[in-house]
Amino acid sequence: MDELARALEATLFASAEPLTIEELKLHVGEGDVEIALGELSAHYEGRGIELVERGGRWHFQTAPDLAHLLRRTREEVRRLSRAATETLAIIAYHEPVSRAEIEAIRGVQISKGTLDVLMDAGWVRPAGRREGPGRPLLYATTQEFLSHFGLGSRRDLPGIDDLKAAGLLDPLDDSAFQLQLESEEEAD
């Protein structure tokens, strides 16, 4: 294997993401990069990893016939507590929102662990501080939250009619929800 192919191999191996030929040339200099990539790809053919080009970008990947070996790790399914679910819903619908506002909407105090669980899951993040007395920390949802729940944006969150149709609001919840919406509209 010549020096150019070795340099390409090292660059691609160390790269966190696939690289274009132009990006590779920035690392290894000019030369017949395309030819060297072809040789390198042939060198890895039939091995446990292979060099592939996808969409004009080159990277190493596990050989498709061995990918099952890496799927042995299992994600542990953790269910959210009712408090965490309610807190997440409040943050999603009212963000950015402070801890005191979450507690006022829920009607009870939330434990420190509840927000920690949501932040550990990657669904909630600190979103700055509110201007005002005490400058309380504000919370908002993350891009991971949207991805996990299949939402393009917060506008895709279900509305009250969707929640009613799904049977998720009983008459008592519905009236409390309506009162909350009316008080928010008056505040605006």
Automatic annotation (TrEMBL):
It comes from the Bacteria. InterPro entries: ScpB_csome_segregation, WH-like_DNA-bd_sf, WH_DNA-bd_sf. Pfam families: SMC_ScpB. Gene3D superfamilies: Winged helix-like DNA-binding domain superfamily/Winged helix DNA-binding domain (1.10.10.10). GO terms for biological process: cell division; chromosome separation. PANTHER family: SEGREGATION AND CONDENSATION PROTEIN B. Keywords: Cell cycle, Cell division, Chromosome partition, Cytoplasm. This is SMC-Scp complex subunit ScpB.
